Amino acid sequence: MTDAPRPLNIVPVRPAALSASSLGGPVLPGPSVPRPPYERPFAAIRRYKWLVFGILAFAVICGIVATRLVKPLYEVRATLLIEPETAVGNTSGPIRSPDILSSSAWVQLVRSYRIVDAVVRKLALYVRPDNPADLGIFSGFDISDRFLPGKYEVAIDRVKRRWHLAQVGGALADSGGVADSVGRRAGFRWAIPASAFDGNGTRKIKFTVSTPRETAVDLMKQLSVEVPEQSNFLWLRFRGQDPQLAQLTLNTWVNEYVTVASELKKRNVVEFAHILSGQLRYAESSLRDAERALENFRVHTITLPSEGAPVAPGLEMTRDPALKSFFDQKIAYDDVRHDREALEKVIAGVKSGDTPWEAVLLIPSVAANPGAEALRNAFTQLHAKQADLAAKRQVYTDQHPAVQEVSTSIRTLQTQTIPSLVSQLLVQLREREGEYNQRITSASREMQSIPTRTIEEMRLRRAVAVSEGLYTTLKSRSAEAELAAASATPDVTILDSAVAPLRPARNTAPSLLLLAVLGGLGAAITLAMLLDAFDPKIRYPEQVTDELGLSIAGAIPRFPKGGVNSRSPEQMSQLIESIRTVRMHIQNATGIPVSIAVSSPSPNDGKSFVSANLAMSFSDAGFRTVLVDADTRRGVLHEMFGIPLEPGLTEFLSGTAGMDAAVRATEHERLWIISRGRKQRTSPELLTSAQLPALAAELRDRYDVVVFDTPPLAAGIDAFAIATAAQNLLLVLRVGETERRMAAAKLELVDRLPVSVLGAVLNCVEYRDEFEYFRYSKGYGTDEAESTALVR
Q: Which of 4, 600, 735, 782 fits a disulfide with 607 by CB distance 3.0 to 4.6 angstroms?
């Protein structure tokens, strides 16, 4: 005996078979007890254990290789403090330095190419040697504005003290000595250190040169920026494979960030001061023109006699109210007229492009008249917007939404708001001029003798006063702006600089190894389960009960390769008890006398071994038993029992021998055997003749138990004919060898015959997993003298 089964799992027999319960006999436990879900997976894993071990070993090797290829990452951190409000940013002073960026824009500034490109160029990160140990040779490496990126290899001949540079996959080649610059034609600015030429042999170094922008893009992927909510702190985290390089990169990054932020802050105030400086120069020129005009007027009128009673030189008469009222109106009329003419002149100058709109601020009616307050506010807004635009253009391009928004506001003020307010003021001046003209005309006859020099002098003095006031204001604000520019401080302060860590922030080696082990184990188990699911062989009890619809009559254990050891009480006990279980199942299913055919779906399933031991078990139980070797082609029972081959079954069926000659006694009491006889060409026809049913009936009359050992069901019609004559069939299935589809196909043919399938005997069962419950307890076996079994 050489094979093994699994846990007992009996279900009702097929429709064509008789159940044990229908005959009043005991029924083996069925599938009412739920099976542990792990039994079948464990059985599959045990069966394919070497495959599982191989896949797991391969996965572990792959994991070890992966841990060597993947390098750990080190993380460095830095903290910045953002303080947008400074002393210059006081809203109560005449000069206010607004925040250059919003809170979210500070993060964008960290990632701007203005900063990252500078970091890449300062540290020469655009050059990467294939071997990190060669990084020291590239100290001082730089590139020109136009260079050729790609992969390069430099060979250093330390004997001849020369180098040779070649582009990998390209036509560029260069060579030189120790002091020569390397890669001038490629746009490199690099001199190999003299220490690299020490020694013997040739040293080859492969390296890659990328564009600074490409390197900056890759570098930004390694940086994480976080601004906590309601906080002025900016947290920077940078990850790299080299902790020292990561520290240097992040510190360079934050230093460049503070420098750029300082420049932006200073340029914001400087641009504002520059605008005020231009306005101050224009106001100074206007003041000088007004003083020169008053001076010329005084020079020409100083010798003219004064009018009326003596008054202060150059001033109007104050004693006569009528005269004073006339001159007041005349002065107001002239002021309005001159202001209107000046305003029209400015409008014409603006249209021709010779005069800026700011010239209207020098007109007295614009500078001091409450009706021109809106116009003055518009100019104030225009100046502030221009300063804001100049500052933003230092940070953003003209296409940026912030720049476009400010530009649109400036154009709106210059092309719509200010011209509209100027036009409204011009209309007001014309209306006031018309009113004063009507009043003066009515009183002009009485006042024609009064000279107009006093009026002109007063107008000139007011022009000087207005220009002087504007100049003084602009002078003060310009000085404040220059002071703010000189004392501007950055809004960003470095709190914590980056420090090179001693341990990596994320070491993926253990994770990769664990992942490889778990992945390999999962793949191996999955493959084992798939192989088990698609295995065509019978390996589990439920395949017999559920798929084939057979009850399990018993399970014969699997023994060592050499067969059953007759000197092993444990092996003999397991064999004998398993045969007794089959015998009990048959006896309760059919009653006495027993007539049964033992067959199997395919050869080498152990049907002859089961037949012989089953017959001996019945004889040991006290039943007169005859064993018929009905396998007329390959029967070997005569060899197993040591009896002559002839005469046998074929001779009896062909009529050449009688019953008494064919039936032979054996060494076992109450056991007789009919050998297969001599092979004949007409053996199949003999088995399907009327003599075989007659033989079966006669044997049932003479003996208590008749056991037919048939050919396999796959061998032809022999087994079907014998089973029909015996009326009962016991199927032997070899676990791990018998194909389920083959057994199912043959059982379909049996279902059409008048044959009761009593169940299946599982042969070569290993008592573990689901078959553990087929084992018989130790210490309850009988002595070998009391029970016998055929071993091999």
A: 600
Q: In 631-665, which positions are buried (b, 16+ CB within 10 angstroms) versus exposed (e)?
A: bbeebebbebbebebebbbbbbbbeebeeeebbbe
Q: Specify burial of residue 714 (Cβ count, 10 A radius: 0-12, 13-18, 19+).
A: middle
CA distance 154 to 790: 83
552-557 and 756-765 strand pairing: parallel
CATH, residue 763? 3.40.50.300
The answer to whether the predicted template modeling score (pTM) of the entire model surpasses 0.70 is no
Range of the domain at 632: 21-49+534-774
User: Which H or E element spans position 79?
Assistant: strand 74-82
Neighbours of 94 (CB within 10 A): 11
Residue 257 pLDDT > 50, yes or no? yes
Six token digits for residue 209: 């040169």
Can you list the pairs that 166-175 forms with residues at least 24 positions away whose Cβ atoms lie under 8 Å? 168/206, 172/148
Confidence band of 333 (pLDDT split at 50, 70, 90): confident
Number of alpha helices (DSSP H) and beta strands (DSSP E) in the chain: 23, 19
Over residues 590-642, the pLDDT tens digits come to 778 888 888 888 888 888 888 888 888 888 888 888 888 888 778 788 778 88
Q: Radius of gyration of the chain from Cα atoms?
A: 58
- In terms of Cβ atoms closer than 10 Å to its own Cβ (0-12, 13-18, 19+), residue 494 is middle
In a domain, 103, yes or no: no
Which residue reads 């002559």 in tokens? 644
pLDDT tens for residues 118-127?
998 888 888 8
CA 619, CA 550: separation in Å to the nearest integer?
26
Which of 607, 603, 604, 612 is CA-nearest to residue 639? 612
Q: Are residues 567 and 712 in the same domain?
A: yes
Q: How many domains does the chain have?
A: 2
Total Cβ atoms within 10 A of residue 475: 14
Nearest-angstrom CA–CA distance, 153 and 170: 11
Give, for 257, the enclosing helix (H) or strand (E).
helix 243-301
